[in-house]
Amino acid sequence: MPVHHLEETFQQTVDAEIKIEAKDWMPEAYRKTNLRQISQHAHSEVVGMLPEGNWITRAPSLKRKAILIAKVQDEAGHGLYLYSAAETLGMSRDQMIADLHSGKAKYSSIFNYPTLTWADMGAIGWLVDGAAILNQVMLCRTSYGPYARAMVRICKEESFHQRQGFEALLVLSKGTQEQRAMCQDAINRWWWPSLMMFGPRDSESTNSDQSMKWKIKRKTNDELRQNFVDMIAQQVKLLGMTLPDPDLKWNEARGHYDFGEINWDEFWNVVKGNGPCNRQRLQARINAHEEGAWVREAAVAYAQKQSAKQKKVA
Amino acid sequence: MNTQSNLPVSYILYLADNNLILAQRNSEWCGHGPILEQDIAITNITLDLIGQARMLYQLAADILNQQNGNQEATEDTLAYLRDERAFSNVLMVELPKGNWGFTVLRQYLFSEFQYLLYKHLSADATLSAIAIKSLKEVTYHVQWSREWVLRLGDGTSESHQKMMDAVQDIWMYTGELFDAAPFEDAPVLQQIQTVWQQRIAETFEEATLTIPENVFIQKGGKNGIHTEHLGYMLAEMQYLQRMYPNATW
């Protein structure tokens, strides 16, 4: 069948809301876009373990310690599902990891910010996971089947994380003066980077139109960002805290909150590698991988010896 | 087997401290494991150990509060507000995490001990519920860590050498497990030691590892005489509780 017929059939399948599966024909650009997006998402889960992992040994109670460890562990699990989903598009996990380490593949810029106080654990759960969920809920209906199914599982755990983050901040907001200050400070530092998580403005976003047509995305960056602002602007009142934006105001006519301009210079700088922790995050992943090389080699060697032994017996 | 419990609180704290301190060490792997699946596995063990520590600290706190007629002790006061000299964990669990080989070897040696101990404590009036629940978890810890000892011991020549180094580094700390403190039951420990030695010998043989002979035994943890590592670990672990007294988290 000529390619343009295939493309037509493909688009009809997408339009009919039938999921695209790994063995279906798909345009090369669709495969590449999904592979880039899913592997980037997997890397984000794994690199995202680091900023929160930074507080595991210092969590202030045994209960908080257990919750935090379980959460970071969930992220490792999400990384696994997503690497598996990406592998269905024809690239090995080893190759994806090599691309992360070489800087070819990206991960979410949010994880290049430092976690400076305990309140950051709450702020990450509430704001960062909150922003991620809006994106992920949309992705539960994405057109590529393996990705959509991975997202359904991930969303359940993520919304739990967000509630835990909010609850951790709620405790701080009702605590001592120092705890309340710690809470407000964390919100101040994480608010703008969280808004940046939705990516460039629609007018600047290169991949948006095609991704919408292929139903990889179903909402634009700006739509999702607005949903997020509307949600958080309400929730912050329950904490008795404020968001660090003097322009944040309910707009009756639009039925949405207006908000101030994002510092796009900062956004692009962090994307380009100039965030406060870009170098440390990547180096931590590379170190873990390199220090684990002898372990992985030994596991392979042992498995080979065992199967050779079994063959001998047989 | 004694079904009547007259276990002192110091014994319950000893069990709890072992779990917490090993969990704290293992938790350093989270996000840094040699492969994602094993990062998850060691973290599962960490979570189990914290869960066991919490049950034991809660029990100890209840007993202490009854004795003192107040409500001052909680799992967190016991974990976060005792000083180095008050912790009674064995030295083995506070040693730095080392490489993956050291971590899995320590886990294996300790889990085999815990397995036998919990089996014994399953019949204890006070501890049976905790011991029975923990035994299920520890059964998995033994299996998982034993598999890694085999893989690395009998893997490549590099991994074999690293495991032999790990054995040298840790062996002098194993005897403390069986050196009965006043709060322990010496004959029971002796029985456990005999079985423990058999099980370790079998695993080491399969893993092509050698048990060192005539090694001097380092001890002191049960009396609160620790290695220099514990102070740093507690300073890090306890800092928020120490910095903001009486705050709720």
What does this protein structure show overall?
The complex is a heterodimer of chains A (about 325) and B (about 250). Chain A has about 325 residues and is mostly helical. Chain A is built from 13 helices and two strands. Chain A has a two-stranded antiparallel ribbon with strand order 1-2. In chain A, strand 1 and strand 2 form a beta hairpin. In chain A, helix 6 runs antiparallel to helix 7 (about 145-175). Chain B is mainly α. Chain B is built from nine helices and no strands. The radius of gyration of chain B is 18 Å and the shape is globular. The model of chain B has no long low-confidence stretch (mean pLDDT about 95).
Q: Which stretches of chain A of 5+ consecutive residues score pLDDT under 50?
A: none
* N-end to C-end Cα span of chain B: 41 Å
One letter per element, helices H and strands E, the order of chain B comes to HHHHHHHHH
Total helical segments of chain A: 13
How is the main sheet of chain B built?
Answer: none
Task: Fill in the keyword field for this structure.
heterodimer, A: 314 residues, mainly alpha, two-stranded antiparallel ribbon, 13 helices, 68% helix, B: 249 residues, Ferritin, 64% helix, globular
Helix and strand arrangement:
The complex is a heterodimer of chains A (314) and B (249).
Chain A: H1 3-15, H2 28-47, H3 49-53, H4 62-87, H5 93-102, H6 119-139, H7 145-173, H8 177-196, H9 208-213, H10 221-239, E1 249-251, E2 256-258, H11 264-274, H12 278-291, H13 293-313
Antiparallel strand pairs in A: 1-2
Helix pairs in contact in A: 2-4, 4-7, 6-7, 6-8, 6-10
Chain B: H1 9-26, H2 36-68, H3 75-80, H4 91-94, H5 100-121, H6 128-153, H7 157-171, H8 186-206, H9 229-243
Can you summarize this structure?
The complex is a heterodimer of chains A (314) and B (249). Chain A is mainly α. Chain A has helices at residues 3-15, 28-47, 49-53, 62-87, 93-102, 119-139, 145-173, 177-196, 208-213, 221-239, 264-274, 278-291, 293-313; strands spanning 249-251, 256-258.
